[in-house]
Each structure stands twice: as structure tokens, then as C-alpha cells.
Amino acid sequence: MMNDFNLPTDLSADLPTPSGNNAQNAKSTAATDITDDSNSNSDRLARWRLILGRYSDKALSDVALNNEQMRLERSLDYLYNREYDNRGDMLGKRRGQTGSRLSGQGGSLDDSQLTAINWLNQAQDLFPKSTFERVQNHAFERYQLTSLLKNDQVLEQLEPTPQLAKTLLSLRGRLSEDTRDNVRRIIQRVVDDIVAKLRPDFVNAIQGRRNRFRRSFIANSQNFDWRRTIATNLKHYNQDLNKIIIREPVFNARVQRHLPWTVVLCVDQSASMLSSVMYSAICASILTSLPAVTVKLLVFDTNVVDLSYMAHDSVEVLLTVQLGGGTNIAKAVQYAETLITEPTRTIFALISDFEEGGSVPHLLSSVARMHGQKVKLIGLGALDESANSVYDIQMAQKLSEQGMQIAALTPEHFAEWIAEVIN
To answer: Which residue from 120, 204, 303, 346 has the fewest beta carbons nearer than 10 Å?
Structure first.
């Protein structure tokens, strides 16, 4: 088992660069984040002990950890030693409960002393925020510590990150009834945070551009006109302070557009598209709140589900989608065609990895028909905060030849693209 850690001959060597998805790399990242940045020999040995945990008793028996480092070791071992219990390793059972060490080798980690809830509280205090978010995600995604979801106090302490929401959505089918309401609450917090960041981008891009010739009395930093503000307040120049006193800030109004448009979002709900599914649902809910925009929301695998009636509620959409399964893009696009009544005022967005499992000729002919009717077409390989995508390049090229723009966009750039089309 020791070989799992690739222990170097010289234990004072630098830590390996974390890669892959295993306990060693996860603990290596955490240990590097939370130990001293110095390159002293004792510091490097302490990091190795934090990484190796129970397997370092002999090799690193001379390494002394201070009280803070011992707390870090216990916290890391409590979570990541589950990796070896899951593999059937009996060493942990000989030493006690999960994460415990030999007598005389520091404090015990028996469940009576460090429960999952206590562990979370301790980890939040010990780790930097970015490290805590990573460890928190491992607890749910890799080790299914769903008991954390049963305590209201713990729920308030969880960091509502998009990654946590995606992990909980992927675990949803394995959660008990008494935890589902709590999962909904966490996802709602994540969605609310994302909406607060994205909504201004959609509103400003789609509802109107600034009109520099029309003044607004609504104070909004995005509409602030600094040139006219300076010109207006020159009369308030204070010679003693050698500065202009701003008494009358000037804000521009916006041009309002009320021409109706229909936006059809057709979203691949295969497991690889989880990030895009989440952001598509959020974008749909924002678009439905805007005047003169009608949203049609479709999710598909080998079947097509029309969720347009709940597009305003992104949380409900996320809890409804069934991630996984095959992919029949042609079937989804053909259904979307039936929803288009005014082609020249319709935007069709296909969010998919373009891995077609259905009829390629039917898919291409449907796209060609919509293009011929002047529907605005875009195919998104990704719609999330990073816009990193992996998709079938050959299929994307074929769709492009039929008139569909192909891109990978963040939600902010998607809003800008829709605004350019509408304008």
C-alpha cells in the first residue's frame, strides 16, 4: 500500500505536483496549502507526514508535529483514510475506527471524538476557503458523507459553490427522502448567488444600451456618466482642497426595446453536460423575467422533455432533469422546430457535446430548414463559468456548414450574443 504514495528515497524532497483524482493528490494539495511556505527540511517532512497519515508511523516517526499540524493531520486523515477503507484495507481496523492512529502516536480519531459534523466545523477553521471548498466537495463526491445534510447548523456552514451544487445533483438519486429538502435549500443558495451575478449582464445587454443624450434619475453605477458629472460639477471646485466636490452625479438612461423574441434553449442532459445544464437553467430563468422575451426550455437524452412551463424556476428544473443516458439530438431539434412560429424573431440555442446517437441526416436537415427560415442558430459546446468544452469537432463542423454558429461561451458572453442578434 505504501507504493500508492510514490514515496521518494529522500523524504525531504519536494512534494509531487498533484494530478489525477486520488487520495494522495487531494491530500498533497491540501497539505501544501496549509503548511508553511518555507522550504526547510522539517517543513517538507511535516508535509509528507500530513499526506501519508497512518502509513508514516515508521518512516517519519522522528518528525514532530506541533499542535496545529496535529489538528490538520487528524482532519485530513478523517476524510482521506476512507480511500483505503473503501479498498478493503484492514490497517485502519487494526488501529481503531476510520482515521485513528496507534496508541501513543497522537490523538484518536474515533467517531465518538470526531463525527462528520465536528469534522466539517474543524475543517472550516483549519483550511483556507479555497482548500475547504475542495475538501468539502471530496466529502460528498468521493466519500458520500451525506450525513452532513441532516443537520441544519451544518447546512448554514457549507460553502454554496457551483461545484457543490453539481456534486449534490449527481448524488441526488442516492439521497434519502429526509435529505432532499436540504439539498434543494443548498442548490437554491447557489442559484441565487449566480443569478445575482448574471442578471445585470442580461438586463443591460438585452433590455437596452445607454442613451448618452437622455438623463436618468436612477443611480446605477453601470450608467454613470463621468464626463458629464465632471462638467456639471466644475462650479463646485474647492480651491482649498484642490478638488471638485461632486454634488450632482449624472446617470444615463437606457433605450428600452419591446419587440417580442422567442428564445429556444435545447439542452443535452447527458452526464458530461452537467455544468451547462445548470447554467442553461439559470439563464432560462433570467430570460423569462425580461419583457418581450418568451423562453422555450427543452432537455433531452434519447427522449425530449419540454420544461418551458417551469423555465422561470431554475431550481425546480435542476431537480427535474435526469442526468445520463444516450443522446438523440435530431429528435430534440425536430421537436424544437414545431415550437417556432415566427422564425425571423426566434433564437435557437443547442447546448450539447454534439455526440449524436440518432440520425445525422435528420439533424442536419432540421438545422438547414431553420437556417433557411432565418432562425438565428447557435450551437454551444459549453455554457458555464469557464467555457471549457470537449465536443465532437466533426459534427460541429457539419452543423456549421448548415448555418449554425458554433461556440463555447460563458453566460455573460451568451447574453452579449443574444443582444447582438436582437439589436
So the answer is: 303
* Gap between the Cα atoms of 69 and 65, Å rounded: 5
Sign of the alpha-carbon torsion through 186, 383, 307, 286? positive
For the entire predicted model, the pTM comes to 0.62
Residue 334 one-letter amino acid:
Q
Report d(CA 359, CA 334) in Å as an integer. Answer: 11
Contact yes or no for 321/299 (Cβ under 8 A):
yes
The DSSP code sequence of 241-294 is TTEE---S--EEEE------EEEEEEEE-SGGGHHHHHHHHHHHHHHHTSTTEE
Q: Using 50 as the pLDDT threshold, list the residues of the chain that sit under it.
A: 1-21, 37, 90-113, 210-211, 216-217
What is the per-residue pLDDT across 82-110, written as a single tens digit (0 to 9) for each? 666 655 554 444 444 444 443 344 444 44
Beta 210-216 vs 251-254: how paired, if at all? antiparallel
Integer Cα distance of 378 and 347 in angstroms: 8
- Report the C-alpha gap between 130 and 121 in whole angstroms: 15
pLDDT at residue 93, rounded to an integer: 46
Cα-based angle 219, 222, 225 (whole degrees, multiple of 5):
75
- Are 385 and 410 in contact by the 8 Å Cβ rule? The answer is yes
Residue 20 Ramachandran class (φ > 0 left, ψ -120 to 50 alpha, else beta): left
Q: Which amino acid is at 342?
A: E
Query: Which among 14, 10, 99, 119 has a CA at the least distance from the CA of 53?
Result: 99
Grid coordinates belonging to 359: 440520425
- φ/ψ region of 41 (left if φ > 0, alpha if ψ in -120 to 50, else beta) reads alpha
Domain ranges of the chain: 2-139, 210-254, 261-422
